[in-house]
Amino acid sequence: MSILQTTDRKKYYGTEPNITKALDGDTADKKFMDEVARRHCPH
């Protein structure tokens, strides 16, 4: 069980027909986000 979970995140930039998909159906939970933060923001 996750404390925090995001599902099906989408973020698009631009307009048709030139759309850039930064996120397209991405899912993450707190454990995953903690690992990303640990790798990219060392203390």
* Number of structural domains: 1
The helix/strand series, from N terminus to C terminus, equals: EEH
Q: Low-confidence stretches at least 5 residues in length (pLDDT < 50)?
A: none
Our Rg estimate from Cα atoms comes to: 14 Å
Total helices: the number is 1
Helicity, as a percent range: 25-40%
Q: Cα distance, first to last residue?
A: 27 Å
Strand content: 35-45%
Sheet of most strands: 2 strands, antiparallel
Strand order of the largest sheet: 1-2
Properties at a glance:
43 residues; 1 helix; two-stranded antiparallel sheet; 44% strand; alpha+beta
Structure in words:
There is one protein chain. The protein has 43 residues and is of the alpha+beta class. It has one domain (5-40). The protein is 26% helix and 44% strand. It contains one helix and two strands, in the order E-E-H. It has one helix spanning 30-40; strands spanning 5-13, 20-29. It has a two-stranded antiparallel ribbon. 0% of the residues are buried.
Brief write-up:
This protein is of the alpha+beta class and 43 residues long.
List the helices and strands and how they pair.
Blueprint: E1 5-13, E2 20-29, H1 30-40
Antiparallel strand pairs: 1-2
